[in-house]
# Entry
Amino acid sequence: MMNDKDKLLNSGLLEQYVLGLLEDHENLEIEENIHRFPELKQHVNELQEAMEQVLIQNAIQAPPQLKENILREIEQLEQATISQKVVPTRNLSWIPALAATVALLMTAMIFFRFRSTQQQLAQLNTAYHELQADCTQNQAFHQALQAQYQFVTNVNTKHVHLTGTKIDPHALAVIYWNESEAVAYLDVLNLPEPDSGKEYQLWADVEGNMINIGGIKAENRQLQAITYIQKAESLNVTIEDIGQNKKPTVEQLIISGKI
# Structure
């Protein structure tokens, strides 16, 4: 048990060590563990400081006759040793002062342990709320993934593959297009980062007219919700100047696919 740091912190032995209530062999074991574990040394130092503060704030003045009584006790004991006949009458009026001091030390010990317990409870409470928030966030993320999976595997969802042109034959993306729900998602599989000042724009071809759907992020590897366009015949991505979304630059068509 002595080698278990956590058990030692919660056993009350450190408080007894500070109060001087342990046997010699127990003191030695405690001191060995204090040297091994900095946390134990810090705990003992805090205990000693707390007890010193209590003693300072509640200092008890020793009775004026205490020294005289102690000397008288010693003298009477010496006389009893010599004569073996004299039985001294002991004046123990100083004992209440000693008892009060011990009581103060015990109060300090209890106060310190209570404060330490309160701090541990606060830390546990914080950790619990953080874990609860993480669980809520993970649950929401899982539900979103599940909804996306159900959408992608829905029999009414078309998988429109947008393949690369001569600009980049290896470019590739998939658009999940559901006419019955009027919902669509884009999944970028391989699309290089555009040059500085450029961006990707997505267009829907409706009866020969190119309708802008919006900009897309090449670095986003999660499903991106996009605007569903009724009667779209094909979907196309061009490289445009940032902010240019009125008319597609056909020469900069990088991926395209028919619905």
Notes: The chain has two domains: 5-59+94-127, 157-258. The radius of gyration is 41 Å. The beta strands are 157-164, 172-178, 183-190, 198-206, 209-216, 224-226, 234-241, 253-258. Helices lie at 5-11, 13-19, 24-36, 38-57, 66-83, 95-152.
